[in-house]
Amino acid sequence: MVIKQVPTLDCSQPLDDQLHFLKLFGPTSNQLSMVAMVLELADGTIYQGYSFGVQKKSISRECVFQTESSTDFLYKGQILALTYPLIGSCSVPERNDNLLSNHLESSCIHVSALVTGSYSGEVKPGSFDGLFISNGPSDPKLAEDTIQRIRQATEMKEFSNFGICLGHQLLALAVGAKTLKLKYGNWGQNITCNNLQSGQCYISSQNHGYTVDTQSLPKGWKQLFVNANDQSNKGIYSPQHPYFSAQLHPESAAGPQDTKFLFDIFLQSVIACLQDGSFLPVTMPGGSHFENSLKNPRVLVKKVLAIKGLKQEGVYTILINPNIATIQTTKRLDDKVYFFPITPEFVRKVLGTPISTIVMTEDQELFANSMAKIGKKCVMSASATSANNSIDAANKSGYPVILQAAYALGGLGSGFANNEEELVDLFGKAFSISSQVLIEQSMKGWKEVEYEMVCDCCNICITICNMENFDPLGIHTRDFIVVAPLQTLSDEDNHMLQTMAIILVCHLGVVVKMPRWDLKKFQQVSSRLGSSMKSVGEVMAIGRNFEEAIQKAIRSADPSFTGFDKNHIVTDKELKNELMNPADCCIFAIANAFDTNQTLDEVWELQKLTSEFGIRPFVKQIDTVAAEFLAFTNYLFNTYNIVKHHVTFKDWGIIVLGSGVYRIGSSAEFDWCAVRAICTLRGRGPRAVMINYIPETFSTNFDKANCLYFKNISVKTILDIYDAKKSSGVMISKAKENTISCSFWKG
Question: Residues in domain ATP-grasp (predicted)?
Answer without folding.
Answer: 368-555
